[in-house]
Amino acid sequence: MRGLVVVSALAVALGACGGKASRTDVPPETTSITGGAPAATGGVSATGGAGGVSATGGVSATGGVSATGGTVATATGGKRSDAEWFRECTGADTLRLQRLTASDIERTLEDVFDSSGTRLGRPWPALRQRGLGSVTVEEARALVQIARERAQQYSAEHADECPDELACRPNLADLGLRLFRRPLSEEESASFEMLFERAAEEASDPAAGLSAVVEAMLESPYFVFRVETSRGGRWSDWTVAARLAYFLWRSGPDAELRNAATRAELSDREGLERQVARMLDDPRAAYGFAAIVEEWLGLAELGEPGFALWPAEVPLAEMAEQTQIFLERAYAEDRATLDELLLATQAPLNAPLADYLRVPSDGLGARFSDVELEPAKFAGILTHGSLLLTAGTPSTRGKLLLGRFLCTEVGASPPSVELPQGNTRRERYEAISSSAACAGCHQLLDPLGFALEGFDDLGAPQDALVNGSIAELDGTSNVPFDGPRGLAELLAGSRQVSRCLVRRFGEYALDGGQGQVHVLQSGTPLPPAGEPPPPPAPLTCLASAFERGGGDLRSLLAGLAQSDVFLRASADFQLPSVRASERTPLEHAAGNGDALARSAASLVDSPLEIQSYAEALAALAREGAP
Fold first, then answer.
1. To 5 degrees, how large is the angle CA 394–CA 439–CA 66?
2. Could you give the CA distance from residue 394 to residue 155 in angstroms, rounded to a whole number?
3. pTM of the entire structure?
């Protein structure tokens, strides 16, 4: 019932968020939630200047990372028009092709095949990557190997249900619905049926035909990529179902959500509200919430291959598990608020992690239990090893805090800078900040990063001075704090932080949290001068609702899932024709990938990740891999 109450309460606010809200609910000195930090005399530019320092001072109002995965940068700052903000937030006149991550694929396969243990391993890029990239042959090979294993397992379990192609049609239709997250077209059904017949005939075994079809579906770009179709300015119900599922659960739609899409209930406000409430009450939402927070703070980077080079005594697995348990438990126990994330005095610990953190481990074993921590040293997720290890120095920690909590991006540091000599690390960084070449950034970053100097670059406690200041917060300059707890209290009470958080969660809702959304501009121009612009970005309204609701992150998820940011479609795009095929599963998938890439490329002349995936599959098919 709680979910229905939450969603219903937010529906009142969302009435304005649907496109009728005025921008006056954001004071002039506060940047729109999709922009950067507010301009402030003497501040550091998020986008330009030598070393990140603006020639005129002030943080660019349009700095920071855009909702569409790129970087927004202007030299002059200032507010954008409503039309510009709207296009940035909604991806107006765009097509989105989003590649699933390794964890998305693993969880989807577990749900579809009612099994566990599928792991794609290192070759598949599971982490967030800004911008466009290519799928390598090795990445494709990892997926093809899993596809073949799953296909053989499924065909062994269901061979009795498929003595021939005709009897197997219901199985194929159901698999297509669950793996492609939409019904198969008539062309696709005919193509898979031909593939079934050829494989079964060559092996004189219907199970081989079933295995070939399942493998082809799992290798298909329509499984590996979320291809979002729309018509008339709104996503199809099937696209909305997939967006909801991967936003809130990080897996595909379940049976009830698929049934709602079949009945077109997701196009109805009340039907959508019921599904969002149900999904937020589902245990899978706790995992989805944890995934969003980990993406927001960059915590998933503990999985980077480079971390394997760290000393063996660093309990990387325990640090990652601690954060996962902390976040999932906060959601499940109705404590998913900004205050809880930043100010929690308890943390899950087991004996190895407690010993590493020099916390009494009496009564602890291999399993995690909540332990009350010393407030002077620990402050919620800010002092989790999963965060501390992603940024080990005062400068990198300051940059992380600025970007994640204040939506202020600072330019990259010079390629080679020698740290001055000093008795302590803090003294050495203070010496760097006095250098004319480095002062602009380091005077902004280091005093903020000093809050976490109670932990070394391996996340272990150390004796150090931990007071510092924030260069600018809520219109006030040089705001001091004492220790991680003092910093956490400032961040938890800041309007600027809460609005940045809504912006970051809004980005996640738009691109699934991976920064791998392909934005293909259709070339539709902005409205001519004198004509009314599109309605303002609804994230502004949601930010106000979030603040009034006491920073309830579960309510924020409900609001985003029903907002125009999430539901307004981009340029109309329908699936390309499928050529009937009697080829191998790999060739079948590669051909469909090539057809999809060609259709998508008609919107813009740009290299596509989908094309690189199709080419990788074709290369594997030629060599008979894996």
1. 70
2. 55
3. 0.80
